[in-house]
Amino acid sequence: MHKKILIVAGATASGKSARALSLAQSRDGVIINADSQQMYRELRILTARPTAQEEALVPHRLYGTMAGADNCSAGVWLNFARMEIDWVLSAGKTPIVVGGTGLYIKALMEGIAEIPDVPPQVRAQAVSDYDDMGKDAFAARLREVDPEFFVRLSVYDKQRLVRAWEVWLASGKSLSWWQGRGATPPYAADRFEVRLVELPREELYKRCNERFVAMMEQGAVDEVKQLLSLNLPPDAPIMKSVGVRELSAHMEGKITLEEAITQAQQATRNYAKRQLTWFRHQLGT
Question: What band does 230 get if pLDDT is binned at 50, 70 and 90?
């Protein structure tokens, strides 16, 4: 009998990490991260990565493994996750995939379209084209070669636009064309056991607020200072982590520390609400 691949999903601050830790202890498990921001090593506090004490209790994988300058897409994560899952299964242990990034979990359960690698020089050309043309003109040009891209996405930023453009430049076919070819799930559907961790909304929001206060006490301000010293581009994925924008604004003298905390708590609650909606829809609960 094959061991199951456990998936512990839920909104931020819902307690999914604690649930995963308990399951790992009872089922000889290895915890594998499925949270996009926890992949980055520079933000242990603001992304609520497991503590050193928790990591010492059971093996943890894919936490803090990437530099903030890197882009961790669903495809990149899936490649890492499959290697970790296969290793855990071969060792006779239980892989426990935990996180709140729905696209990662969807990619693991349903697969992801195979898109050709884009050479670095083509990626650089795509970024240069965006910077030269500006967002509106760039989007209009992209719409000519990939109109379906704009039908599928209601929100798009520089990162998504450049990604679609670089795929077209590199392959001569649109990103939508590649994605429309379908995907092969990496594992059979019956291999998964899904646990959706939910809390009443009022309790979830309360925990979001309290957790950000705890992050401040743990040194979140210093963590953001160190991140800003790296001079990463503003559109780097790590710069979009909840709390970075708000605390940065405080450091620049634009808002008070109290205002930064209040805004970050609101952003955390908004993020949790989006996650909750996504998981309930996608996982059918």
Answer: very high
For the record, the structure tokens of 55 come out as 């990591």
User: Do residue 188 and residue 103 come from a single domain?
Assistant: yes
> Is residue 14 one of the residues assigned to a domain?
yes
Amino acid at 67: A
Q: How far apart are CA 278 and CA 273, in angstroms?
A: 9
Q: Are residues 187 and 268 in the same domain?
A: no
Residues 195-217 pLDDT 10s: 999 999 999 999 999 999 999 99
Specify the CATH number for the domain of residue 248. Answer: 1.10.287.890
Residues 198, 12 contacting (CB under 8 angstroms)? no
Q: Decide which of 170, 197, 224 is a domain's last residue.
A: 197
Count of CB atoms situated within 10 Å of the CB of 62: 21
Number of compact structural domains in the chain: 3
Banded model confidence at residue 164, pLDDT cuts 50, 70, 90: very high
Task: Specify the range with the lowest mean pLDDT, choosing from 1-5, 223-227, 235-239.
Answer: 1-5
Amino acid 151: pLDDT: 84
Domain that holds residue 242: 201-276
Predicted pLDDT of residue 152: 76
pTM: 0.82
Query: Hey, what are 269's tokens?
Result: 């609650």
The domain that holds 124 is classified in CATH as 1.10.20.140
Contact 101, 34 (CB under 8 A): yes
Torsion of CA 225, 226, 232, 234, to 10 degrees: -30
